[in-house]
Amino acid sequence: MKYDLIIVGAGPGGLACAARAAAAGLKTLVLEKKTQVGAKVCAGGITWNGLIRTVPADLAERSFPEQHLRTPLQHATLRSSTPIIATVDRQVLGMRMAELAAAAGAELRLGCRLCAIVGQEVTCQAAKSGRHERLLASFVVGADGSSSLVRRSLGLATEAAGVGITYQVPGDFPRMEWHLDPRRFASGYAWVFPHRRSASVGAYVDRRSMAASDLRRNFLSWAESQGIALGEVRGRAELINFDYRGYRFGNTFLVGDAAGLASGLTGEGIYSAIVSGEAVADIIVAKDGAAERLARLARNHHRHRRMLDLLNRNRLLAMLIGEAATLALRSGALNFSAIEMAHDHQPFSRQ
Ligand SMILES: Cc1cc2nc3c(=O)[nH]c(=O)nc-3n(C[C@H](O)[C@H](O)[C@H](O)COP(=O)(O)OP(=O)(O)OC[C@H]3O[C@@H](n4cnc5c(N)ncnc54)[C@H](O)[C@@H]3O)c2cc1C
Questions:
Q1: In this structure, are residues 174 and 196 in contact, taking their beta carbons and an 8 Å threshold?
Q2: Which protein residue's CA is at the shortest distance from atom 1 of ligand 1?
Q3: Which superfamily does CATH assign the domain made up of 2-39+90-159+242-309 to?
Q4: Whether domain 45-88+160-240 has CATH 3.30.9.10
Q5: How confident is the model at residue 345 (pLDDT cuts 50, 70, 90)?
């Protein structure tokens, strides 16, 4: 079977790409190894400039015009006239995006895992029957996340990556909190992101500055110090690839985490996945302006990398920068949106 475009992975990057490409008339297939779309180890935070303004309002579970930022020396309450961050249920977001892609004409094959890829020839395996199938496409998009097989098949290493751990703790959590403490989380941070009847309580670090086992140990002692009872809840950890080395390799493209476009500083990646997915579809159908959108995203990604490299120099410096940034945020000299991946956001075309 020959397709114009095969997309590997039905996360936000792959589904955004599929909806856009199919709407432009491309015969588009999405392969997803899981049997359902959406579920993902994630805190589900979306930012104002990035996505809150552009996703349907009912997708947001909770939104927060107030943020609580804690450092070893300060507790800052930051307020804004618009919600700084909202939380979404990744399964609901995934299902909504899958519906849009299918309505645009994309074919979605769930429970179908990419096994091998040579150029534009893709071999996949159906989970149910175990049957292998060879498919051909004019273009392939790797949207298969941080451990992307498409990326590995291109010979690209992933040296710069973060690790995030999250516990979905039941209960009503009234506040969205960020905890910067370089003694426990180096250049990273811990968070409480409330959802409807639970919260993602977790932490993120650059794995080059801390091993995942140390992150877990420090996170558990931090949660205890905050009086957060994790009880029987199972923690889940995953890598976040921020080793961006380009998005186009001949007729094979990478988007989202597969491209390493998540932020190394904050771990924010849903926005980058959607913007890069849509832009790559536009590049394939030769629509104007898409390369500039990707260049802008790459610039912001680079800005976050530079800040991360500075914080990684030593923990005392990270502590000083964290305290100074918090002071600047409290006084209004710095705006919280400065750390969004959509920092210089300009609405991307939706047609
Ligand atoms: C603990 C944690 C917390 C996070 N919190 C946030 C947050 O609050 N806000 C935010 O913006 N980002 C957050 N992120 C990052 C965010 O989850 C990712 O950046 C985002 O999901 C990337 O989207 P994607 O479409 O590129 O990849 P993914 O969402 O990872 O989707 C990739 C898809 O490809 C599929 N796949 C993989 N391999 C194959 C294969 N061989 N064959 C077929 N299918 C395959 C997977 O099953 C998956 O469905 C967090 C990450 C972690 C780990």
A1: no
A2: 164
A3: FAD/NAD(P)-binding domain (3.50.50.60)
A4: yes
A5: low
